[in-house]
Design a protein that fits this description.
Elements: E1 9-13, H1 20-30, E2 35-38, H2 41-47, H3 56-80, E3 85-89, H4 94-98, H5 103-110, H6 114-119, E4 123-127, H7 148-162, E5 168-171, H8 177-194
Parallel strand pairs: 1-3, 1-4, 2-3, 4-5
Helix pairs in contact: 1-8
Amino acid sequence: MHKLNIKRRIVLTGGPGGGKTTALDLFHRELLGKIALVPEAATMIFSGGIERSLREEVICAQQIAIFNLQRHLEDVQRTTNPESLILCDRGCLDGLAYWPRSEEDFFTTMNTSLNYELRRYDAVIFFETSASSGREIKSNNPIRNESAKKALILDQRLQQIWSQHPNFNLVSHDKSFIKKIMLGIATINDVIAKI
């Protein structure tokens, strides 16, 4: 196994049903104590009793809460684990794909910029949704409620946003979920070795 750089932060993201959380969990078990995980903020919010909504003002309020929780969780993990590699289950820019208003409105509301948010991470590993092959998405996350069509739209938005990162790594969909997870874990290893 390679030496970990103590100040690095990597985000794993992608559309719903891509396998990122599964890969992250397996990778964490392998390197327990050497990496610190930042859990998915949206799952924490929605599993904590906040219901999803279709109303624009509610979606905005929820995304503000998710953005702030994500930022604070990352800061807590960095403070708690100063010598660990930080692996994030989604990143602060994910909220832009869910934001119902303009991109400019998102960055104004969050008091940030695209460039600042991209610079927060040393690398992005993007897990393409299984909906990209026309399949229904399956998830062990009971909070997930997106249809395959909605998952594909979100995947495309997220990929458009995160592919602007100079160290963007795509884990494409595979008919075999196990092969995809293995490829994802290999990609995480490769990315860590290079940063």
